Amino acid sequence: MSTAEKAGTGTARTAAPVTVRVPAKVNVQLAVGGLRPDGFHDLANVFLAVGLYDEVTATATAPGEGPRVTCSGPDTDQVPLDRTNLAVRAADALAARYGIVPDVHLHIGKEIPVAGGMAGGSADAAGALLACDALWGTGASRGELLEICAELGSDVPFSLVGGAALGRGRGELLTPLEVGGVFHWVFAVAEGGLSTPAVYRECDRLREARGGGAGADAVPAPEASPALLAALRAGDAALLAEHLSNDLQPAAVSLLPSLDDTLAVGTQAGALAALVSGSGPTCAFLAEDAAAASDVAFALRASGVCRTAHTATSPAPGATVVRPAG
Ligand code: ATP
């Protein structure tokens, strides 16, 4: 039987709606290499999935309706509701591979900040892929799903697998990492977002301005820090705090200087360490325990330097079907 036959060629099957929960990520290390000729940068990207989730629900619609997407939650006015939405692109990619007509309604319940450097769009893509795979009964293998994820974006494969992983290449070549304990985080959500490509461009501009150049010949090849990986393995928050790093932080702060105030407020409130999450503007604070995290979140909310602050723990599982219960 061909894969198309297995999946029910030509149209989506009528089945109960499927809901998938997908975590946000924080980069505990983001080492950015030089600008490559193809416009990307080589990365050593240490991903940690955190317990802040979007939920993607896939529901079969009438034949010929095509894919439709709706979204609820804060800042959803910034989320496109057409075929450029990453969740729709994921459904389209799976449907094309299996010869299915993607008559599906995707609803995204958003908790992950939009354009916040926490891979919210990537999470929705991974969630939609898993939800449609279950709805349509495509039975795609893990390897196939990961392949589609990598085509959709550099952070999408990690959203599917969760936990902790080292991402090489553009971030999509994943090696799972061991984590020896629970880490407590606070995330300060900024008013508005930052465009990831704009932050990379600013990183290149700052490197050029320093006189060193921004190309692969001028910037050292990115490497994961052995001390950071050891801290993760040990589950040691104090040690991890000493080794957190993000090469995009100067660029994010250059584009949004108020981030320095946000970082300072959390540090003064007792965080072990503070850093910009990915391309920002969300700021991440590592805390000693749940009580310390709650103090830091309270101080951030009270200070007015951010729109809101969330506490969350890591590591978190990757994309998981939550309804129908397995
Ligand atoms: P990353 O951390 O992977 O660089 P991010 O978290 O900073 O990404 P996203 O929330 O993924 O940013 O949004 C980036 C842009 O992608 C948004 O401004 C929006 O225009 C577009 N986008 C497309 N699909 C989605 C989606 N499902 N959710 C959020 N944004 C989406």
Describe the structure.
The structure is a single chain. The chain has 326 residues and is of the alpha+beta class. It folds into 2 domains: 175 residues, Ribosomal Protein S5, domain 2, CATH 3.30.230.10; 132 residues, 2-Layer Sandwich (Alpha-Beta Plaits), CATH 3.30.70.890. It is built from 11 helices and 12 strands. The strands form 2 sheets. Strands 1, 2, 3, 4, 5, 6, 8 and 12 form an 8-stranded mixed β-sheet that branches. The chain is globular, with a radius of gyration of 20 Å. The relative contact order is 0.19. The N terminus is likely disordered. It binds adenosine-5'-triphosphate.
> Can you tell me the overall shape?
globular
Number of domains: 2
User: How helical, in percent, are the residues?
Assistant: 25-40%
Q: Write the CATH fold name of the largest domain.
A: Ribosomal Protein S5, domain 2
Could you state the order of secondary-structure elements as H and E? Answer: HEEEHEHHHEEEHHHEHHEEHEE
Task: Classify the secondary structure makeup into a structural class.
Answer: alpha+beta
Number of helices: 11
What's the total number of strands? 12
**How much β-strand is present in the residues?**
25-35%
Low-confidence stretches: 1-13
CATH class of the largest domain: Alpha Beta
Task: Round the mean pLDDT to the nearest integer and report it.
Answer: 94
Radius of gyration (CA) equals 20 Å
Main β sheet profile: 8 strands, mixed
Which ions, cofactors or small ligands are bound in this entry? adenosine-5'-triphosphate
User: What is the distance, rounded to the nearest whole angstrom, between the alpha carbons of the first and last residues?
Assistant: 26 Å
Q: From the coordinates shown, what is the CATH architecture of the largest domain?
A: 2-Layer Sandwich
